[in-house]
Amino acid sequence: MRVSVNTLDPHMTASVGSDLSVLSHIYPSLLLRAPDLKLQPALAKKWTMVDDVTWRFELAEGATFANGEKIDAAAVKWNLDRVRDKAVGARIAAWFELVSDVRVVDPLTVEVKTSSPYPAFADQLSMFFLLPPEWAKTHNPASETMSGGPYTVAENVPGDHITLKANPDYWGEKPAFDTVNFRTIPEIGSRVAALMAGEVDLVTGVPTTEIERINASGNAHADAVDSTRSMLVKINHQKNPMENLKFRQALNYAIDKEGIVQSIFDGKATVSNCQILSPDYFGYNPDLKPYPYDPDKAAQLLEESGVDLSTPLEVEVPVSTYLQGDEVTQIIASQLQEIGLTVKISEIDFGAFMNKQIKARDLAQMAVQGLAWPTIDADGMLTMFAPGNVYDYWNNADFGKLLDEGRATTDPEKRKTIYAEATKLMCDQAASVFLYQQPATFGVSNKVTWQPRGDDWVRAFDMSVKE
């Protein structure tokens, strides 16, 4: 892993690529998302939307935690109540704001009521993991575990590794590996070296420049698939001159997205079709096309905008966060300078970047950022640009109204129509500079098979020993 696990409490983290990936081996969830990005049964063997605001889940029989506690409807209710309890302060509480009531129908059936339609609720549950209620009363889930999943924690050395052992009392399918070791190796060169030396079997976030070398090693193979994360230049519409539509459109014409894909990512990335949704998302708009690279058109729009081109522009980038993001930012700044703009790059630690964006509400005029939403649904992803959202710097009332309409119905076709209109509005208004889908790069030992996935999950149960 690129970063270490920060907490063992699954309700206190939303980090899929680290915390939740590890915890998915230890704790049960109602549903899981498979490598093909489709939902599959886990504790819930069947789930149905009874009406627009009621979900029913039918659970597997005989499921227990390692201490003997039952994983039943009462345990599910306790966990949903815990995560919504303001006194707990769960990091993922916002995922369940629409949940109004949880009812135990019988030991193996639970019903969840929502205050308004929540069509992506089942998708959200694929990353919600259950703690044992009685155990949690006398233990600290942030630093202790009590397994209800296929593995138990054998050793935890914070910042270095977490070793898991197969849970002999697991109620589900027997895991393929007796031992799973998650090592924290922040430096990419060290990760690649460990893979090629046979010390690890899977690494992610491999620079595309390393793929050929790994494939030539004879010990491992590497490649990339499109991820669900869209890269963009986020625009702070509250800072001059970013409120100017023609100026924002000029920025979109000035960036050579296809050139970035070819020169930085060796063609392993895909240019975004003028939206933050990728084709994997429900609500993706197939009718939109990218702004073409046209510096002459950009220069014309700049002139028509009336903006003083001597006005300095700042573009922020969180360092060592996005795949080759620092290199991409250099190209973006250079191409904006080519059309006469004065651009300053500010490199910033990711934690400081998030605090500046969310708490201080002081994002620079532009920021290179990658966005993804775990439900792979337009409702979640687009909400980051809705008026009042902590991530929003656009404040477009028409856009917010469309999202409200999308949430008011569970009819898939109506939702698609609404989200098509919402994504077109974002494109027409150049709400951001739409760049590319970040490639999900990986290197895998020749000793195992692993189905690549684009949503950041890293799981041993997506792997098997090569025969």
Structure description:
There is one protein chain. The protein is of the alpha+beta class and 467 residues long. The protein folds into 3 domains: 16-149, Alpha-Beta Complex (Dipeptide-binding Protein, domain 1), CATH 3.90.76.10; 154-225 and 440-465, D-Maltodextrin-Binding Protein, domain 2, CATH 3.40.190.10; 228-438, Roll (Dipeptide-binding Protein, domain 3). The chain contains 14 helices and 18 strands. The strands form 5 sheets. Strands 10, 11, 12, 13, 14, 15 and 16 form a 7-stranded mixed β-sheet that branches. A 4-stranded antiparallel β-sheet has the order 3-4-6-5, with helices on one face. A 3-stranded antiparallel β-sheet has the order 7-8-9, with no helix packed on it. The mean pLDDT is 95. GO terms for molecular function: peptide transmembrane transporter activity. Residues 38-387 form the Solute-binding protein family domain. Keywords: Signal, Transport. This is ABC transporter substrate-binding protein.
